[in-house]
Amino acid sequence: MQAIFIKKIVLVRNIPPDPDESVSEHVQHFFCVNHPDHYLTHQVVYNANKLAQLVENKKSLRNWLTYYKNTYERTSKKPTTKTGFWGLWGTRVDAIDYYTAEINKLTEEENAEREKVISDANSIIPAAFVSFKSRWGAAVCAQTQQSRNPTIWLTNWAPEPRDIFWDNLSIPYVELTIRRLVMAVSLFALIFFFMIPIAFVQSLANIEGIQKVLPFLKPLIDFGFVKSFIQGFLPGIALKIFLILLPLILMTMSKIEGFTSLSSLEKRSAGKYYLFILVNVFLGSIVTGTALQQLNTFLNEPPTEIPKTFGVSIPMKATFFITYTMVDGWAGIAAEIIRLVPLVIFHLKNTFLVKTDQDRDEAMDPGYLRFATNEPRIQFYILLGLVYAPVTPILLPFIIVFFAFSYVVFRHQVINVYDQIYESGAAFWPDVHRRIIINLIISQLLLMGLLSTRKADKSTPLLILLPVITIWFHVYCKGRFEPAFVTFPLQEAMVKDTLERATEPNLNLRTYLQDAYVHPVFKGIQEQNPPAVEEEEDSSPLVATKRRNWNASKNESDASSKAGSGTGQ
């Protein structure tokens, strides 16, 4: 059902304020005038963050009440609890009576807050989900500029209801640009300063460096097993530990940037994660591991010598990347199929936190496939394979084994384990293709640097054609295929609309649209139908309005002209 209507709904943001109309009335009048033949209805967005918190607290209290009722049924003894924080201190009271009273009190607060959200105009944020009668009308609206001022009435395709990130819908245009600038600077700082722990990690692979810094460890290091472990697995393990918190940090930065859907948050986080591992794990490992030992020479040499420096460094780090592939790649895939960490977390929750069947169901939630981290990891191993294929082919079997295991394991996990929390419509593919092209160009440039060190200077200029052809291919693919992921052709929209009218002439869109994009805290509340769902079906642009500068007695062209001048203010 969602797939049928998803191309008929447009997200409108930065709705300008109007002194004479509410947000809902303003949206209705704007689209009745500017899209009179295709506008159907709309749903404004409420700031229900406080209400959502009350609903969550009430859910927790009900869970505790269920737990104590189950305890009473099993033991026939009245359970008690303390009224203080987490039941750790305070007056000891009857647990069932206490939580029943707390739930009743919270229910009253919730009803009052819900009524406030629905009735208070200040609770409505300047955003709305606008529904159209046809895909053609929605495509025209979503893919065109609506006002003379390009910073207001911003339209784009609405994500599916499960995909919406409600907290970011109210961010103004100017604040949005400032946030993204600040996060871009923060990402640069994060990548730059993370080179310090990366350099420390790489120093662990140098036995001489460890003995120089920590001479008292020399007797221990002389053991063959310890020496092999330090040189082989310790750098990869330490690097993996440093990267554990990175996805959470990058996701938080993406949320601050103001993206309005979970898929766009993951897509943006995946881009940051790829850039991070490219600079810190790949280039950082090469530079800090070998070229840093020649830092004075590296800084003082001419730019034409930099590729040669990397050409010398890359083969020397093949051993590290083999061990990194085994530790991060093979072990990561094994951990994915075993799911040891989720298993341990479940048993910890089951022992200390699970009180009811609902708690157990939540503890057993398998989660979803996290594209923000898994997709950049796969891209990184593609890069390693492309770079080391002509340099150190011994690395290729390790990469091939990783991809073979990844295909088998993730195919099983996607089909049988993970839940799908949203549908993005293959929105990740343009970024995936772009990163593959970047990997190709990097591998070609590094190959040129390597050949320049192996007495193949005469053949190196010929290789310049490789990145040039690769860039041309990317430009061609971007122009030929990327629009299919960004825009919806009007011809295709018209074909689908015509087919739908022929096959389903009695299709009722309102039944689905009346609550499809209601805030989750209102779902299931039958008696609360937010007033922003308009029932206006009149396609005439001359709609009733309270605006003083709008004269309903004017003809259609005058009304359209005034609507255009009003929205441009």
Folded structure, characterized:
There is one protein chain. This protein has 569 residues and is mostly helical. It folds into 3 domains: 2-46 and 120-170 and 491-567, no CATH class; 51-116; 243-486, no CATH class. It is built from 26 helices and 6 strands. A 4-stranded antiparallel beta sheet has the order 2-5-1-6, with helices on both faces. Strands 3-4 form a two-stranded antiparallel sheet. Helix 12 (246-257) crosses helix 13. The longest helix is centred in the middle third of the chain and has 28 residues, at 262-289. Mean pLDDT is 79; it is low at 289-295, 526-542 and 548-569.
Brief account:
With 569 residues, this protein is mostly helical. The protein has 3 domains: 2-46 and 120-170 and 491-567, no CATH class; 51-116; 243-486, no CATH class. Helix content is 62%, strand content 6%.
**Stretches where pLDDT falls below 50 for ≥5 residues?**
289-295, 526-542, 548-569
The count of β-strands is 6
- Tally of separate helices: 26
Distance between the termini: 39 Å
How many discrete domains? 3
Strand order of the largest sheet: 2-5-1-6
* Broad shape: globular
User: What percentage of amino acids are in beta strands?
Assistant: 5-15%
What is the structural class? Answer: mainly alpha
Give helix % range.
55-70%
What's the alpha carbon Rg, rounded to whole Å? 30 Å
Largest sheet: 4 strands, antiparallel
Estimate the mean pLDDT confidence. 79
Organism: Citrus sinensis
Protein name: CSC1-like protein
